[in-house]
């Protein structure tokens, strides 16, 4: 997993692991300070990092969790290989390179010193510098393979490529789909159901480029990509989603936007056991792709699709899902509206809960996939755990920095 030729000494491992309690206590303060230093010393990196997530505090918390996990497993980094691969997909999609890692390491160590003060001795700093080298090498190694695979894939590319918006479709009061074809009319790679692309745009009034990752909401194909984007307006003190608003209000058919090649490991499995797809709001985008793919490639697989939205007017792609499901006796679709205008338009009012899931899904021996707003995901995760669904059968993805569903 690592290209480091010299393993860490027992002393270094012990020092790093001894700092785990400190990271648990001060991790968020350290990573918040890290980003302050990073963007002050290297403002050009604002072109890569999502500044909205910075303002919301999500990115520092996600980094703190990742640093904590790395420290706790520094002597057995293979334990966090799935997390490394998940983050590496995002890094490859954002075009993060090996040369960025020394910059990150330098500012992370400075942040630890700033927050911990005299408690961060030279011995601890040196141990962490050595450990960070091993952790960075692990990421660089995995990401190098991903870059190579992407470049070698038929129709694949590295970095960003201009695509033309060939169609813009309003799917609901808040979600609009964008159909994208390469501006150079060349080939595009197929992708796995559940993957995403990164969109890079220059928003007027913002001095840096903005990059956002959006799930591909269409069935994998070799003709076009489709993203279905929710217009994120600021709520309760949260900042507006500058990219989603830009796409909704300023991008029109015929315009060009730069995107990276598909990435991500939240993908449909090839198992034959029943498939349960549970989405909330715009979380339906990767699951709609999975639904189409499962119907075509696994025609005899039992599928239960449950979507939750606030109201009928907020429910995107409903007709598309209904039409796809009508082609197979093995597909069962359910709708839950929190505040429906007409209760006859849904199967349940309020929220998805364990009682409802148990009433429509005949077995826990199934593959469960879910995606949506974090409170929604926490509720679904809690219900599945209470139902004793095997951990290996629970699959989910956060839109944005990784969170903690058990927090």
TrEMBL record:
It holds the Pfam family FAD_binding_6. The keyword NADP applies. NADP(+) binds at residues 281-286. Its EC number is 1.14.12.17. Residues 158-269 form the FAD-binding FR-type domain. Heme b binds at residue 91. The record marks 90, 397 as: Influences the redox potential of the prosthetic heme and FAD groups. InterPro entries: Cbr1-like_FAD-bd_dom, FAD-bd_FR_type, FNR_nucleotide-bd, Globin, Globin-like_sf, Globin/Proto, Hmp, OxRdtase_FAD/NAD-bd. The record marks 35 as: Involved in heme-bound ligand stabilization and O-O bond activation. The active site is at residues 101, 143. Residues 7-144 form the Globin domain. Its cofactor is heme b; FAD. FAD binds at residues 196, 212-215, 398-401. HAMAP family: Hmp (MF_01252). Is involved in NO detoxification in an aerobic process, termed nitric oxide dioxygenase (NOD) reaction that utilizes O(2) and NAD(P)H to convert NO to nitrate, which protects the bacterium from various noxious nitrogen compounds. Therefore, plays a central role in the inducible response to nitrosative stress. PANTHER family: FLAVOHEMOPROTEIN. This is Flavohemoprotein. It comes from Gracilibacillus marinus.
């Amino acid at each position: 997993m690592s290209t480091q030729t010299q393993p860490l000494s027992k002393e270094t491992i012990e020092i790093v692991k001894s700092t785990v309690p400190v990271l648990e206590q001060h991790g968020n303060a350290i990573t918040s300070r890290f980003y302050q230093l990073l963007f002050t010393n290297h403002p050009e990196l604002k072109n890569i990092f999502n500044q909205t997530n910075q303002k919301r505090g999500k990115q520092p918390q996600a980094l703190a969790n990742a640093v904590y996990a790395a420290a706790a497993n520094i002597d057995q980094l293979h334990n966090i290989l799935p997390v490394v691969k998940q983050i590496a997909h995002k890094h490859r999609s954002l075009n993060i390179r090996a040369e960025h890692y020394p910059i990150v390491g330098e500012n992370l160590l400075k942040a630890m010193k700033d927050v911990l003060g005299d408690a961060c001795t030279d011995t601890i700093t040196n141990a962490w510098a050595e450990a960070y080298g091993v952790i960075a090498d692990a990421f660089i190694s995995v990401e190098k393979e991903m870059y190579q695979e992407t470049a070698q894939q038929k129709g694949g590319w590295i970095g960003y490529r201009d695509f033309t918006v060939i169609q813009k479709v309003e799917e609901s009061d808040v979600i609009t789909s964008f159909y994208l074809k390469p501006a150079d009319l060349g080939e595009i790679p197929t992708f796995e159901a559940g993957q995403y692309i990164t969109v890079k745009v220059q928003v007027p009034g913002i001095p840096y480029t903005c990059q956002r990752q959006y799930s591909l909401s269409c069935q994998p194909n070799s003709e076009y990509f489709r993203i279905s984007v929710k217009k994120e307006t600021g709520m309760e003190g949260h900042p507006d989603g500058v990219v989603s608003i830009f796409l909704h209000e300023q991008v029109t058919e015929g315009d060009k936007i730069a995107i990276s090649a598909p990435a991500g490991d939240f993908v449909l499995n090839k198992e034959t056991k029943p498939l349960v797809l549970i989405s909330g709001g715009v979380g339906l985008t990767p699951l709609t792709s999975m639904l189409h793919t499962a119907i075509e490639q696994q025609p005899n697989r039992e599928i239960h699709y449950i979507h939750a939205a606030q109201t009928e007017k907020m429910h995107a792609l409903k007709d598309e899902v209904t039409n796809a499901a009508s082609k197979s006796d093995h597909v069962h679709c359910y709708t839950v509206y929190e505040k429906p205008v007409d209760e006859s338009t849904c199967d349940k009012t309020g929220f998805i809960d364990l009682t409802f899931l148990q009433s429509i899904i005949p077995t826990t021996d199934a593959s469960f996939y879910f995606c949506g707003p974090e409170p929604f995901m926490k509720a679904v995760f809690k219900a599945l755990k209470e139902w004793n669904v095997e951990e290996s059968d629970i699959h989910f993805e956060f839109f944005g920095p990784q969170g903690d569903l058990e927090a």
